[in-house]
Amino acid sequence: MTDVLLRGGLPWGLGAPADILVRDGRIDRVSLGPVEAPGAQVFDVAGQLVLPGLVEAHCHLDKTLYGGPWVPHSADDTLSGRIANDLGRRAELGVPSVARIAALLERMSAAGTTHVRTHTDIDPAAGLRGVEAVREAAAGSPVEVRQVAFPQHGVLTNPGTAELLEEALKSGVEAVGGLDPAGIDRDPVRHLDLVFGLAGRYGTHLDIHLHDGGSLGGWELELIIERTKALGLGGRVAVSHAYALGQLDDAHQDRLVEGLAEAGVAVVTAAVYSFPVPPVKKLRAAGVTVACGHDGIRDLWGPYGSGDMLERAMHLAYRSTFRRDDDIELALEAATVGGARALGLDDYGLAPGDRADLVVVPAGSPAEAVVVHPARTLVMKDGVVLHN
Ligand SMILES: [Zn+2]
């Protein structure tokens, strides 16, 4: 494997230009002085920001129509309308489509994403077709894809789903999902006991979609915190969306944020549409891992999403009304190290010894990279330059 030398870039967090030498798929040296590396492939990236690979921590690859012809959205704009649109038109549009998923992964990779966690629908109608389609597309992509076995249409309310979730985990799916234990399944205690039980038995991660708002959502967060602590699953549990966190009064919010920090439960946000955004600054100040993702990208649920995690970080910063550079940087953190922590990635970062998953952005600062999100100059995965 040829050594690669990135000359004169600005490694995020270092505060000075440096040379980065990559050898055997890992970062070998980060040096403030010039590195001599005879035989290395050299890229002059002077004045450009060098980031670790971007992490898409929440999307739905199996649903995507990316790369195909535009599909007009004319469904009823209600939750039931969107569900009916999704279920009713899948067969006609060939969803899940290995080709569409592959096209989206290619776009994500070109934009510097090196790791993806995707929630794949599992129910008695779809079976494990989505899991297989995502696996097939991921096998041909440099992007590392982890799946969440996702009960999109409920577990308790949709007999046969629990068994399929277990089958998915047995087949190697990396995480189990959940969905509004109260709002959809109407029985949070049984729902959570079931999904936590699966995560414990199979040693997987757990990532629960929680749209339930207000005090109901707050109570479900408490139940998730309790179970994470009781089962010692800290670092392996995430709550996606967690709209309630953005709706409760300060005192209630503070209690929950403290609980999430103590238990080691991560929060994953997409900051889409006008849905409440969790208090990113408060969560980070308390030490809670915050990750970020697109949610749906060009699918039957909605027409938006580009696959670019710097653009998504911009949406998160904007929806959080961040203007200061150090605040905007929190959104970049969610799209990088926060995602890496939520997914449990090893050897992630910009230090010697870390895996050489790198992205070079023509920006002079983290805030500029987020706000402008210009086309990436170079993307590297495990020491291999994929795009430049
Ligand atoms: Zn989702």
Topology at a glance:
Blueprint: E1 4-11, E2 18-23, E3 26-31, E4 41-44, E5 49-52, E6 54-59, H1 79-93, H2 98-110, E7 113-121, H3 129-139, E8 144-150, H4 161-170, E9 175-179, H5 188-202, E10 205-209, H6 214-231, E11 237-240, H7 250-263, E12 265-269, H8 280-285, E13 290-292, H9 309-319, H10 325-343, E14 358-361, H11 366-372, E15 378-381, E16 384-387
Parallel strand pairs: 1-4, 1-5, 6-7, 7-8, 8-9, 9-10, 10-11, 11-12, 12-13
Antiparallel strand pairs: 1-2, 2-3, 5-14, 14-15, 15-16
Helix pairs in contact: 2-3, 5-6, 6-7, 9-10, 9-11, 10-11
The chain binds zinc ion.
Zinc ion binds next to loops.
Q: Count the helices. How many?
A: 11
What does the overall shape look like? globular
Share in helix: 25-40%
Question: What distance lies between the first and last C-alpha atoms, to the nearest angstrom?
Answer: 18 Å
What is the radius of gyration? 21 Å
Query: Order of SSEs, N→C?
Result: EEEEEEHHEHEHEHEHEHEHEHHEHEE
Unreliable segments (pLDDT under 50, ≥5 consecutive)?
A: none
Strand content: 15-25%
Write down the overall mean pLDDT. 96
In total, the number of strands is 16
Structural class: alpha/beta
The main sheet comes to:
8 strands, mixed
What are the distinct ligands in this entry?
zinc ion
